Amino acid sequence: MTAAAEKRPIYLDCDTGIDDSLALAYLLASPDVELVGVGTVSGNTSAAQAARNSLALLELAGRSDVPVAVGAHDPLRGRFDGGVPHIHGHNGIGGVEVPEASRRPEEGTAAELLLRLSREYEGALEVVAVGPQTNLARALALDPALAGRVAAVTAMGGAALAPGNVTAVAEANIWNDPEAAQIVIEAGWKVTLVPLDITLENTLDEGDRARLLASPVPLARALGQMLDHYFEFYLPLYGVRSCPLHDPMAAAVAARGVVPTRAPAVAVEVDTTDGPGRGQTIADLRGQRRGALDQEGATVRVVLEIDRPLGPHLVDLLV
Ligand code: BDR
Ligand code: CA
Prior knowledge:
Blueprint: H1 3-6, E1 8-14, H2 18-29, E2 33-40, H3 47-60, E3 68-70, H4 85-88, H5 110-120, E4 126-129, H6 134-142, H7 146-149, E5 152-156, H8 172-175, H9 178-185, E6 191-194, H10 196-199, E7 203-205, H11 206-213, H12 218-238, E8 242-244, H13 247-255, E9 260-262, E10 268-270, E11 281-283, E12 300-302, E13 305-306, H14 310-318
Parallel strand pairs: 1-2, 1-4, 2-3, 4-5, 5-6, 6-12
Antiparallel strand pairs: 7-8, 9-13, 10-11
Helix pairs in contact: 2-12, 2-13, 5-6, 6-9, 11-12
Bound molecules: beta-D-ribofuranose and calcium ion.
């Protein structure tokens, strides 16, 4: 058995994205997991641009061995809306120019890559999904047995008790493809949902950015540069130049760099109507006042608290 095979294999599905880039870097640096594939989806930027970003960042990290596949350009219903350049920059990574990778994406789609890896690492593969969940839903449609071959899914998405960040109730990854999210939630596999409730409470600030910029690690320095743009967007929300840790939180929970201390398994449903609730993750958190109580039969765990702040640990790992 190779050293890589002893680590827990992880497939990352992302819309690379500044915080997606932090998640990618976190997984590469985590000692107990092995990133075995990356699939991209439209969200922060197009799926094609997200793949260019992922390939470039992997090459910067000296990890051109990790396959990258382009996934769904459009959600299951409707069309990709063009992304959020005001949050993630015109190229998805804050306008930072990382040298273009010398290799191309895989021939097949992200859904096909996920299916291939689920067979190669049957029973062991874990999925970390930090973009809209279109590729996961497409893979389940191609092969519903996928759910039985994957050990766990950790997804950044939703808002349990917190407000949304696109509408009053909807978080971006779910908002961008609510139908896909509902398919993923009811597929029967073990899902850990990492919602805004916890990601907005964990941040990076200028001190953290300075540490990244001063790092001898090229990927850490590129991340420090990207954060300049990201901090600007979040200035009105936090009142200081800083940012939340959405996608790295999902990566850290999956890699067990942080441990959820309150994460009940409860019934979760995505609002797929066309009303004002579209994209809401309705988590049944009744009866949780005296501690986390798992509901019988629930397959979705909702992370509400973790054991330590993610920010300092994230920067320690990346520099
Ligand atoms: C999520 O939406 C995207 O913009 C981020 O990358 C993150 O995955 C936060 O709502
Ligand atoms: Ca993302």
